[in-house]
Write a structure and sequence with these properties.
Length: about 60
């Protein structure tokens, strides 16, 4: 019962992080020009890894 709920929650979080990344793209470009790193890719990678682990059954 919890596996489908966890999978759906992780999928929604991943989609929201992608949308946030797209919306924050102009801010990230300006931050990079100034010299400030913008680590959105770390958030997206960690959520994607958690989702991948949730959809693949463990042996």
């Amino acid at each position: 019962m919890f596996a489908p709920l966890r999978r759906a929650t992780l999928f929604a979080l991943y989609q929201m992080s992608v949308l946030t990344g797209i919306l924050l793209l102009p801010v990230a470009v300006m931050a990079r020009r100034v010299g400030v790193p913008f680590p959105m890719h770390r958030i997206m990678e960690s959520i994607a890894n958690a989702y991948d682990e949730a959809i693949e059954p463990r042996p």
